[in-house]
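Form 7-S
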Amino acid sequence: MGIILWIIFGALVGWVASMIMNTDAQQGALSNIIIGIIGAVVGGWIMSLIGKSGVGGFNWYSFLVALLGACVLIMVVKALRG
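Output:
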């Protein structure tokens, strides 16, 4: 994916993850993009641990993998903040 698609994909994934994890009011657009992109990497890593493929493009499977990673990332950050 190109950089523009990564930014759009990250924003979408980060926004949905923040709504699921109930942190939408605390985050801005830049935070959603960063969480979505890092979440895609984390989700890909989690999926590789169980023998599946990670994020491979702009499709539903990649969206769900990135969403899983973003939710895990938000959960870890919330736990560290206390």
